[in-house]
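Chain and conformation:
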Amino acid sequence: MSKRKKVKDENSNALRDRLDLNLVSQLTEKKEKLKKQIEEDQERERKQKIEERKQKEANKSFEELLAESELDWKKYK
């Protein structure tokens, strides 16, 4: 192994080695909490969009419903 590669290997683990194990565990917990919070926020947004779509559908006017209908009144004349 060259001298340069040895120094690089030593530096790659240096930060983790210098940090206190307690601090590393706290940072890991914080990371997991943030990840969980982001997932919960995304789920909440998804549910809110679904609810908004339902409300929008429920509040459609007769004209909008008729325009979306696939029925052709000419067939039943």
